[in-house]
Design goal:
The protein is α/β, with parallel strands linked by helices. Helices cover 42% and strands 14% of the residues. The strands form 2 sheets. Strands 5-4-1-6-7-8 form a 6-stranded parallel β-sheet, sandwiched between helices. It has a two-stranded antiparallel ribbon with strand order 2-3. The longest helix is centred in the first third of the chain and has 12 residues.
């Protein structure tokens, strides 16, 4: 585990130590951004189970966890309920306002919030929270504003990677691993 920490910039380590809430976009973060429609009009999305696993640990440890997406999808609603997220906002045009509302509701400072996003609609949030993260396959101008760029691409465990970093920086990941060995 120490090798993973060696690859994390000191600034990101410091930011991660303060995080109490992790919020994220869906398409391009929890999924690879693909939207597949069947001939009958059904929508298909693929979610990574590793993201769901870390969410359960984050919630058990008292973190606020939530999705904020610009699209609306019954599949996203279903996945958010399945993961028991604290928040699932869909059809959002001003994600930063939602983040500010959550911060006020939960008594959090923006520096205590991590946000993961991959597109232009996520820029204001990424720039203004304590830990703004972009997946490696995000648009270049989004990555330019992020504090951290993940090794994983959207839909391939991005949330898991960020959750592991935050938990490790707060000294909580080792215990989770030990509890399962």
């Amino acid at each position: 585990m120490q090798k993973v920490l060696a690859d994390i910039p000191q600034d990101v380590q410091s930011r991660a130590q303060k995080i109490k809430a992790i919020l994220f976009d869906v398409d391009g973060v929890l999924t690879d951004g693909s939207i597949i429609y069947t001939n009958s009009g059904d929508e298909i999305k693929a979610f990574n189970v590793k993201d769901g696993q870390i969410i359960s640990h984050l919630k058990r440890l008292g973190f606020t966890v939530g999705a904020i997406t610009g699209r609306e999808s019954a599949l996203v609603e279903r996945r958010c309920k399945e993961l028991k997220l604290d928040y699932c906002f869909q059809g959002v045009k001003d994600k930063f306002q939602i983040v500010q509302d959550i911060a006020e509701q939960k008594g959090l400072k923006l520096e205590e919030i991590a946000y993961i996003g991959d597109d232009i609609i996520d820029l204001k949030v990424i720039k203004n929270v304590g830990l703004g993260v972009a997946p490696v396959d995000a648009l270049s101008y989004v990555k330019d504003e992020a504090h951290f760029i993940t090794v994983k691409g959207g839909g391939n465990g991005v949330l898991r990677e960020v959750g592991d970093i935050i938990l490790s920086q707060q000294g909580k990941l080792t215990q989770i691993i030990e509890d399962h060995t």
